[in-house]
Amino acid sequence: MNTSPAKWPSRTLWRWFQLPFAVRVFALYFVFVGMSGYFMLSLVVEEVKPGVRQSTEEVLFDTAQVLADLVAPAFAKETPEPLAAELQQLLASYGQHQTEATIWGISKGSTPHRIYLTDRKGIVVYDSTGTAVGKDYSRWNDVYLTLRGQYGARSSKANPEDENSSVMHVAAPIRQHNEIVGVLTIAKPNQMMQPFIDRTQAYLTVRGLALMALGLVIGALLAWRLQRGLNRLELYAEQLSSGERVDAPKFRVFFEFGKLAAALDRMRHTLAGRAYAEQYVQTLTHELKSPLTAIQAAAELLQQQLPDADRQRFAGNILQQSSRLHQIIERLLQLSALEQQQHLRAPSQVSLPQICQQALNARTGRIDQQQWQLQFDAQPLSIEGDAILLEQALGHMLDNALDFAPKAAIVALKVHKASESIVISLCNQGPQIPDYALPRLTERFYSLARPGKSGKSTGLGLNFVDEVMKLHHGKLSIENTELSGEPAVLVSLELPIR
């Protein structure tokens, strides 16, 4: 059994909804504007022809009435008298004059009119063309209706085989003492009005099509702006999902999109706050458990009778673990405040050589103790950023190097300009990082054992550096390398040039 006809509508509907939103909106708008414009334009254009003919008919009626009053004296008797020669010449020459006039851009020459008079029986007593005198016109609508006190008019073809040969006949009654004693009819070819009809129809068609085109352009622009707004909202949602720190997009026209973006931002803050608190509780509990266990064990041992050397050793353990707890809490507070920032609060021009020198000066004692062979090369470069955060990030990098670099190691701190960024790099001789640990170094609380030390660090330093880079739209990268032929580790901060 063939079911394809039944599936076709649903399949077509599915494909329709797969089209971009702007295309669907514009397609519906195009159909609506196109159909509405077509029907309205057709209606208006079709109304031009009868409108022009009605106006012409009114003018002919007024003219016929004036001429009927002019010839009324000749119909004073029962049998109409012949018209005076002057009057016959006037009626015969009516509309036959050669003119050179331009009316609304259309040249007008002679306007042939035909005028005929009938008596009260409908018999033609005068014809400006001289072809119908004596004929019975009582059955023609113009004469028949007028003799009965009604408005009489008709349109007849001069040539039955020619559709364009129709002639408009408009009649007016000839009265004597309020009695209709005859009829005067003026006939004018409809073809004389066709240039005005064609011109008006062409004018309306061109303007109507231009208006429809303008409407479609406006519709396309509206659909584009709607699609652009949706794309910005979609990008913002994706950035939020990936953890990027971006401000909610602003909308000047479609402020409803702005409200939706603000709602997304509030939802992100709410969800992030809950997830952040839950994650911190879990990680903090895990990290505090080890030093607290060590402190508890040492305290229990100190309650026993021990030699002075053991008591000193256990008391030192308590002091060491307490110091570690203090560092964890302090750095967690710093990191918590940093992670709540979505953007730099008060960015300013920061001299990179200056903050590098300040970070080095703060660690002069440890650097001298390690007997580093320091190589400091900084180009005079600056960026828009937060000087305090950048100096703290450099401090954490130097602290890591001091923990891992052996005595008398070569350490190179360099500030230079790359193709599209400014790079602060710190390269120190020392043990390289295991491959399994490289992708995890910026994880919170992840730390490697320090050479010559029993414990680990808080595991928050490089995580802090990574957060600072995100705020500055930069990038932290760590890789193994060589320096002067010895194994080394290179840590780089890439800051965008703005």
Brief descriptors of the model:
498 residues; 11 helices; 51% helix; rod-shaped
Description:
The chain is α+β, with helices and mostly antiparallel strands and 498 residues long. 51% of the residues lie in helices and 19% in strands. It has eleven helices and 14 strands. A five-stranded antiparallel sheet has the order 4-3-7-6-5. Strands 9-11-12-14-13 form a five-stranded mixed sheet. The protein has a two-stranded antiparallel sheet with strand order 1-2. A hairpin with a 2-residue loop joins strand 6 (166-176) and strand 7 (179-189). Helix 5 (194-241) packs parallel to helix 6 (255-302), helix 8 packs across helix 10 (387-404) and helix 10 (387-404) packs antiparallel against helix 11. The longest helix is centred in the first third of the chain and has 51 residues, at 21-71. The two termini are 66 Å apart. The mean pLDDT is 77.
Q: What portion of residues is helical?
A: 40-55%
Mean pLDDT, all residues: 77
Give the C-alpha Rg.
50 Å
What's the total count of β strands?
Answer: 14
- Given the C-alpha coordinates, what overall shape results? rod-shaped
Summarize the structure.
The chain is of the alpha+beta class. 51% of the residues lie in helices and 19% in strands.
Secondary-structure map with pairings?
Blueprint: H1 4-18, H2 21-71, H3 85-93, E1 101-103, E2 106-108, E3 114-119, E4 124-127, H4 141-147, E5 153-157, E6 166-176, E7 179-189, H5 194-241, H6 255-302, H7 308-339, E8 348-351, H8 352-361, H9 364-370, E9 373-378, E10 382-385, H10 387-404, E11 410-417, E12 421-429, H11 461-471, E13 475-483, E14 486-496
Parallel strand pairs: 9-11
Antiparallel strand pairs: 1-2, 3-4, 3-7, 5-6, 6-7, 8-10, 11-12, 12-14, 13-14
